[in-house]
Design brief:
3-stranded antiparallel β-sheet, alpha+beta, elongated, 9 helices
Length: about 350
């Protein structure tokens, strides 16, 4: 005979002639020759090696059989803490002896209803869960198998990975800028210009922008481009240069109306640059120089006229007033005297009288 002692966390299968005849737990047992005893740890999973005996009437009463289908997962917890994921297959644990709890979930549909986000963020679930994050300044649109489902606000979203195709189109809710640069356009009088235009816009209807229109940004770019080309093509070069400050205002009205179909609000628009061809630029420079020269000549003639008129008025006053004439004469004598550094005197002895005669003659 053979003696076998089982501890608290042990169980054993007893075989005779390769047939299972008993399942035993903690205690001391004696067995005859020919009886085989196989021991197990009851706190561990029953080995898959023994899947063939799961249907044994004697054994299945002691085992908790878990069948996981192809569209299911089982989450295994120990002491209320998540431990691992059980893939499709058949699993067995000792009833009332193992420390585990099991949660079976269906992944046939992408939605997750009964699993907390804390568990879904565990690395063990990375292979089974899709994760999308929408920032505070974004909105998203959820498409399942190409069909629009719902509008997503800011947050962290989880969906099961299955045969369904999930796409999230995200857009920025903040004001954005679009540059339409290097547009080579002919004016009405066939002058070729290069223009740079800028537009500030904001997405206000995400369903229109992403679900009802394809590549709304490209469409908005084309709307701006065509509106700019159409407007410039109806104006001559001179009209364009005279009214360039009004171009942005005119385009803003037209672009705003068409952009509403894309779910976009145009906030502002501006013409940044008008780049002229080299020949036109040279001509414009010559015109500018000529204009400035004409202005300078006009100013000089005006100043000369004013100066002459002032001299004439002064002459009339001095003719009518001898005292004013003498004062003016003394003023000029004083100015002449300031220029004299030295005086050489020669002649008779009455020098002072001679000087007086010179200056008062």
């Amino acid at each position: 005979m053979k003696k076998v002692t089982l501890q608290e966390n042990e169980a054993a299968l007893v075989y005779k002639n390769n047939q299972l005849i008993n399942v035993i737990f903690k205690g001391t047992y004696w067995f005859f020759l020919g009886e085989k005893v196989e021991r197990f740890n009851t706190s561990e999973e029953f080995p898959n090696l023994y899947e063939g005996v799961f249907n044994n009437d004697l054994l299945k009463d002691y085992l908790e059989i878990i069948n996981v289908a192809d569209d299911e997962l089982v989450l295994k917890y120990q002491n209320n803490n998540f431990q691992s994921v059980m893939n499709p297959g058949v699993y067995a644990f000792w009833k009332g002896k193992n420390p585990y709890k099991f949660q079976k979930v269906s992944i046939a549909d992408y939605t997750i209803a009964d699993v907390s986000k804390v568990i879904l963020e565990k690395p063990q679930l990375n292979l089974y869960v899709r994760n999308y994050r929408i920032e505070s300044y974004e909105q998203g649109l959820l498409f399942v198998d190409g069909k629009f489902i719902e509008l997503l606000s800011a947050g962290n979203y989880f969906w099961w990975k299955n045969s369904q195709t999930i796409t999230v189109a995200k857009g920025d809710t903040r004001q954005q800028n679009m540059e339409v640069n290097g547009q080579e356009i002919l004016t009405k009088d066939k002058v070729q210009l290069r223009m740079n235009f800028s537009v500030q816009y904001q997405i206000v209807d995400f369903i229109k922008a992403f679900a009802e229109n394809r590549e709304f940004e490209n469409q908005l770019y084309i709307i701006i481009q065509m509106a700019l080309r159409t407007l410039v093509g109806t104006m001559t070069f001179d009209e364009l240069m005279d009214q360039k400050n009004k171009i942005a205002e005119t385009l803003l009205v037209e672009i705003t109306q068409k952009a509403e179909r894309l779910g976009v609000k145009v906030i502002d628009a501006g013409l940044k640059d008008i780049i002229l061809p080299g020949e036109i630029r040279d001509i414009m420079n010559q015109v500018l120089v000529a204009e400035k020269k004409a202005q300078a000549n006009s100013i000089m003639r005006r100043e000369e006229t004013a100066s002459t008129r002032s001299l004439l008025n002064t002459a009339k006053l001095m003719e009518e007033n001898q005292m004013l004439y003498k004062l003016k004469e003394m003023e000029y004598i004083e100015k002449i005297s300031e220029k004299i550094n030295t005086i050489s005197v020669s002649g008779s002895g009455n020098i002072v009288s001679e000087l007086k005669q010179i200056f008062t003659k």
